[in-house]
Amino acid sequence: MKRNKWSLQATITVLVCGVVVLSLLVTDLLITRTIATSIEKDQEEKATNVARIVAHSQLVTEALGKQKQEVSIQEFAEETRSLTDVQFVVVMDMNGTRKSHPNPKKIGKQFIGEGKEIALNGTEHVAVSKGTLGTSLRSLTPIFDRTGKQIGVVAVGISLNDVEKAVSQGRKNIYVGTLLGIVAGIFGAVFMARYIKKILFGLEPSTIAKLLQERDAILQSVREGIIAVDQDSRITLVNKAALRLFQKAGLTQEPRGMKMEEYLSNSKLGQIMETGKTEPNEELVLNGITLVVNRVPVFLNDKIVGAVSTFRDKTEIQQLAEQLTGVRLYAEALRAQSHEFMNKLHVILGMSHMGYYDQMTNYIKELVSHRNNEIGAITRDIKDPVLAGFLIGKLSYAREAGAKLHISSDRQVPEPLHSHISHELITILGNLIDNALESVSTCSRRQIEVHFDYGDDILTIDVKDTGVGIEKETLNHMFERGFSTKGEDRGLGLFLVNQSLEKLGGEIEISSKLSQGTRFVVYIPYDCR
Question: Is this model's pTM higher than 0.70 or not?
């Protein structure tokens, strides 16, 4: 089962909270240890300082030197203990006998605890040791008289409970600060996550990545050139189609990052950002290439933040429109028919001027008879007036090209149910006949046969010629856009034939022999009225 991915808000919240908690815990660990060490050190110094003060007290040195009563040591020690808030202040002589103690009953008895021997040998010593008052932190300091002779030792003790209490209080303060920091971090993480999500319009990172991929794929796949600029008129986006058109116009620099005025001075995108008005279908001449341009400002929160321009080669648009709609094929057929008719009128006019009226009459009768037979055969077999008219025009075009075009049909071809079928048929037939005429143009025998057959809702069109034929390597690529063996700016005819067949759900078969000719057989589902 696929796990649900966390949302952006949850991810940021958890991540920031985790970082804050981890940082505070590590800080807490380090600071707690430092503070505990510092407190223990402070307690050691406190005990040592108190011990040194007592050891250097004149009262203590004189009392141990038998110059004063010992009872004065007890009073002084207890007063010092009370003022410094330590557990005990014990003064002992060189035999380790106590001269003071919080419990007067312990006076005169031996001092118990670690480090006594070290201190009796003239060296200060600090240690944790267990005595009659329990375990405590003790500082033992030697006592010297005025001559420098050691006469005793002072032991000052601080209860470990007091030390641990001080450390615990320090830790408690740290824990409170850590908790407050975690709470603040959580609120900050939630606020940051919501703010970032608001900036991203509530979209998750995966959605944003998908949108970017889709946007890039769309921009690179469209045939129109697209260029975008930011509010500083700096180019931020250019797709492949735009780069191809720019290179065609001689602009070979990488445009991204450049100022639009430096790269394309007559783009007018700066003007669009000033006016905020869209300019559709404007013409732009770029180094001899005429482009059809659309300019649109980009708004964000009612503020213009950039502009986008789309453009396409005007010649390509015109050429594609003519080829897709069959206008070129119609025009060529009508032109050929008109040209042929004008030639015949010139013959008739010449005979009339020369007075060859009988010959002129016979000529007209032959023309009318031939024309009636030709037109009658087509209109009888082809019931679609658009297709029939187109084929009649192609007969004239073939005669003008010096070729013989024969059109026949085994059965009557009814008028199609939808008019778009006629246009697609004209595209298919026009390109196949044109290719056949071009193929036979260099041959001694220039003959083309177009045969129709209709049955079982299938229209079969057979186009044969006696031309030069097609090589096998060419057969595999002849329906690709732009592929041609006849030079540049060719290779659209059979590509359009293939497109029309795909629209109609038809199929095509090709057979060709070099120097003998080529045959195209087209099968098209044909709904008739």
Answer: no
